[in-house]
Amino acid sequence: MAAGDLRDGRIVIVGASLAGLRAAETLREEGFTGSLTVVGDEPHPPYDRPPLSKQVLLGRATADTTELPMRRAPDAEWRLGVAATGVNPLEKRLLLADGESLPYDRLLIATGTRARPWPNPAEGALDG
Questions:
Q1: Which of 24, 30, 106, 109 is the most buried (most CB within 10 A)?
Q2: Is 54 domain-assigned?
Q3: pLDDT computed for residue 124 by the predictor
Q4: Does 70 fall in a domain?
Q5: What is the DSSP letter of 27?
Q6: Distance between CA 46 and CA 76 in Å, rounded?
Q7: Smallest Cα–Cα separation from 109: which of 16, 4, 9?
Q8: What is the helix (H) or strand (E) element at residue 25, kind and residue range?
Q9: What are phi and psi of 46, to 5 degrees?
């Protein structure tokens, strides 16, 4: 890959949720033609978390209705169900929990965050 050629090469995105999906779509929309891999520790394709934690748990919707809509197919390899455990920046390799590693020219980390419990359990148990 030439130093100035940003439309080619290998990009690995760590995070297979909304941010990772939209990043992959945007890369393609902006003309990236190289190899694109999306890595996620969950075994499911990207899904919409708010409805899952609201409507699905209340029985108003089924889990299969929470899949995120794709604006366009990102033409990516999806490595689902395996966590990224580290990065070797000198060798430009993403280390995976299964012992494998993925080469990259550019790495995008789009893992998001985890929900934290409410600090006061009594307040967190209030209805509504």
A1: 24
A2: yes
A3: 77
A4: yes
A5: H
A6: 13
A7: 16
A8: helix 18-29
A9: -55, 135
